[in-house]
Amino acid sequence: MNPTFRRLIVTIFSNEFAGSIAAVAIPLLVLELTGSAAQAGLVAAVGGVGFVASQFFSGAITDRFSAFNVLRLSSLVQALAAGVLLALVVFRVDQAAILASVVLVAALASSFDSPSEHSIVKRVVPQADLGKAASIAQGRESLAGLLGGPATGVLLMAGAWLPMAVMAFFHSLATALAPRDPHSEGDGNLASRAEGCRTPVPEAGASLKAAPASAAESDAPPMPEVTPAPSLAREIREGFAVVWNDAGLRGTALIGAFANVTVVAVPLILLMSYQRAGVDAWAIGLFASCAGLGVLVGSTFAGWLTTRLTLGTLGIVALAAFTAGQGLLWAVHGNVFMAGAVMFLSTLALPAFNSAIGAYTTAVTPEHLMGRVVSASGVPGMILMPLGAAGSGILLEALGPSAAVASATAFSALALVLIVATTSLRTLPRLDELTELSPVAEPAAHAH
């Protein structure tokens, strides 16, 4: 892979590692400062809701500017937010509203990481390597998640301030290492690259042409005609329209959303079940790491699979293997070590499934639409993911662990049925056979 992509991987890993620390450390920090578990949960919820809500506009905003600059600014804001949290710990500020505000800012900034990453990948990675790039991203994300939890536990032994300091360091590292556009000497703005500077428009909807007032002026070049920039709301709608109008994008968004319910719910059901049954903490921790380890190992060969199989076949095989493994947990969950082994084996297939979805999205989406399409594609998953978290506890209380696992696995089974039954998804070709969608929207308006 080229140097720009390598810097991108390090940048996103730094942000994700800091984020995995935040997921554990911030609720504990709020609990320590306020003494209220309810306020700790509320602060965490504010960040989660803010992140989900920002998915609607983060991609459209990314498309308006250079994705390289957006990623750098996002990392910087997250670094500053972590620095503020560090100061709040040091000075023992216990107002939940202040803590929630800082967490919200960090969550909003982090929502720009994914659309900017996909836009940069589209720009610097050849289409033949998109599957490999997606699998590397899967491994990076899994590694960050695997390291984040144990690292947070070690850091907290020195006090609540140290996780905040480490978060600030890694977000700052991401800011410093964020890649620059290798194809542009300027800021990389798509409109600027295309036509140069934009001429201001005095009135919305106006189209201006030069009208010479004298013979001398008639020899001057005419004033450029100006088309006003589309509104942000329109660009957001365009992203959703692209996803909805393409059967592949629409289908992969829904399939990923359904599968994610199972990905989130089943481990939570079993973790709560083991804790309630009095299983040793070290055994619970070992089980919790098995899914992340499976994804990490699976990512090492997912890229190779994307070059050998059609995306439709890869999606079916990977999703079938994952669903079968999750279903098997219904029978073996009583033994935490057996359950961990099955969880590891079943999640080996997830990187191939996610790589197929990610590579398809990047390959068929025009560069100037990448940010908003990635955001729109992720909205169904972001909406359903809380269902997996909330539903895990409800299912466990109402049905017990066996039936709860079976019920949660039904969502990945539904995703499998959808991909098998939908011709446009089942017949998705190999990566090297994909072509971009016909443009349905233009880049931000420019003078011409």
UniProtKB/TrEMBL annotation:
Q: Where is this region: Disordered?
A: 208-227
Q: Could you tell me where this protein is found in the cell?
A: Cell membrane
Q: Which GO terms describe its cellular component?
A: plasma membrane
Q: Where are the transmembrane segments?
A: 12-31, 37-58, 70-90, 96-113, 253-275, 281-304, 311-331, 337-361, 373-396, 402-421
| InterPro entries for this protein | MFS, MFS_dom, MFS_trans_sf
Q: Start and end of every Major facilitator superfamily (MFS) profile domain?
A: 4-427
Q: Where is the composition biased (Low complexity)?
A: 208-220
Asked if the keyword Nucleotidyltransferase belongs to this entry, the reply reads no
Q: How does it sit in the membrane?
A: Multi-pass membrane protein
Task: Give a yes or no for keyword Cell membrane in this entry.
Answer: yes
Keywords, alphabetical: Cell membrane, Membrane, Transmembrane, Transmembrane helix
GO molecular function: any one?
transmembrane transporter activity
| UniProt name for this protein | MFS family permease
Give the species: Falsarthrobacter nasiphocae
